[in-house]
Amino acid sequence: MNEETIFSVTEVSQILKGLIENTFSRVKVKGEVSAVKKASSGHVYFSIKDSDSVLNAICWRGFSQKTEEALVEGMEVICSGHFSTYPGRSCYQMIVEKVEPAGIGALLKKLEELKKKLAAEGLFDASRKKQLPFLPETIGVVTSPTGAVIRDIMHRIKERFGRQVYLWPVLVQGEGAAEQISQAIKGFNSIPKEGIITKNGYIARPDVLIVARGGGSLEDLWCFNDEAVVRATAESHIPIISAVGHETDTTLIDYAADLRAPTPTGAAEKVVPVRMDLISQVMKVQARLTDGLYRLAQEKKLRLESVSKGLPNLSELINQYGQRLDDKAERLFLAIESLFQRLNEKFILTASLLEANSYERVLEKGFAFVTDRQKTPITSVQKAMTKQLLMVHFKDGSLAVSPNGKKSLKVTSESSAQGSLF
């Protein structure tokens, strides 16, 4: 290449493109985000600037989904990628593959904006909070399988009231941590209420979840501010206790969880009561119940005794009524006996009157009466003329007569059975 060499525009563009791409194949640039624009293709165009210069940047569609949240106007960021040129406009630009907030201020600004967004959707509303079970059978823990956090939680649960604990191991810091944490929360929620049976045994669905990690810087705890983690927490059907960092640390998962614990150990204390405290409480309640029942029995006894004083002596009352019953019975027997006597006297009198007025007594006075041979009374002459034989009865016997006078008559005594004609 010399001063006599003549290049085409395209050749110059290609040479410059090669020089820039080879020189800046991997680079990080720190600056303030501005002029963010998302094209219909899915690519994101923006600028990175400082107090003196502006750098054009582009984030291809494949990377924009991961970096778009960090591209907020005015936020200071660190962009990782490489440089290239765009010959069509004779400009150089940075191809951005990763965007990270630069400094605490930028992180806090991003955090506040995401917090406002999620709060506006109602993810932090108190009405969404679920009641924790008083004494869960199974507890799920989402945290790192190594370190002091899981040991502290397990020790404190065992110390207070031993329960079954399932650990879902996840990263709690760095790249991929947020995705693992949100998937762990969703995974626990995907277990059916009746549990599942695997080749390794039965797995119950946890009654409560603890999402925990130890203390750290804002950057260390950043995965617990991730939107996917916050949404998985808010959408969980299982109550969640957040126990991230120390008491002074606050992450967005704390607002979406059903309860926030100041530390992982504090979460273990909130999830189960102390067994001995429960036993003591039950014994106190039992003593109070026994005391109350005794006092109630005494009050009822005193009241019963007070009421019984106004009641007559039951034995005496029964004896009095027995005496009255004896008196009534005696009067009844006397009344019946008197009644029978009067009836008997009346019967005798009636029988005497009947005897005095019987037809035998009438016959003794000189009267007679007439019947036919069947002893049917004859009461008229006309009727007597229709009979061939009449019987005339006296006090000492009967006399058979013929009404037409053609036959002789024979007197028979009363003792004769029929009498006879001659």
Give a brief outline of the structure.
The chain is α/β, with parallel strands linked by helices and 422 residues long. Helices cover 42% and strands 22% of the residues.
Q: Nearest-angstrom radius of gyration? A: 63 Å
Return the CATH topology of the domain at 137-273. Answer: Rossmann fold
Structural class computed from helices and strand pairing: alpha/beta
Largest sheet: 5 strands, mixed, barrel
Number of strands: 16
Shape: elongated
The average pLDDT score comes to 86
Please identify, by name, the CATH architecture of the domain at 137-273. Answer: 3-Layer(aba) Sandwich
Q: What is the spatial order of strands in the main beta sheet?
A: 1-2-3-5-4
Order of SSEs: HEEEHEEHEHEHEEEHEHEHHHHEHEEE
Question: CATH superfamily membership of the domain at 137-273, which one?
Answer: Succinyl-CoA synthetase domains
Q: Roughly how many Å apart are the termini?
A: 202 Å
Highest CATH level, the class of the domain at 137-273: Alpha Beta
Proportion in β-strands:
15-25%
Number of helical segments with 4 or more residues: 12
Ranges where pLDDT stays below 50 over 5 or more residues in a row are: 413-422
Helix content: 40-55%
